[in-house]
Amino acid sequence: VMLVESGGGSVQAGGSLRLSCEVSGFTASRYCMAWFRQAPEKKRERVARIHSDGTTAYVDSVKGRFTISNDKDKNTFYLQMNSLKPEDAGMYYCAADSTGLPAVCAREYRNWGQGTQVTVFS
Hints:
Largest sheet: 7 strands, mixed
Strand content: over 45%
Order of helices and strands: EEEEEEEEEEE
Number of strands: 11
Low-confidence stretches: none
Structural class: mainly beta
Shape: globular
Distance between the termini: 37 Å
């Protein structure tokens, strides 16, 4: 399984970025895909996740600003980030794993991308 992120960069506060994660070699029929971020000296946190049934979940700090989506035809999922704040900065990682439950995703993921840096300046 390989996950490759792209789309990170540097943006002014209030701006937008769209992260992409291209997934290959992943064949689970029921799965979860997620975006995590980690800022220096902070714990990694899950920002958003999407289940193969389409259900989504977000950390409170990004609700209404970020949108996770999945293009199954392109084997790619996305994180649209709008109204970015300096506290959104960090290394963003995509992750994927199979799940045995509908609408439920585990906390741990076994497959990870290499990360893409997001910088937000004020």
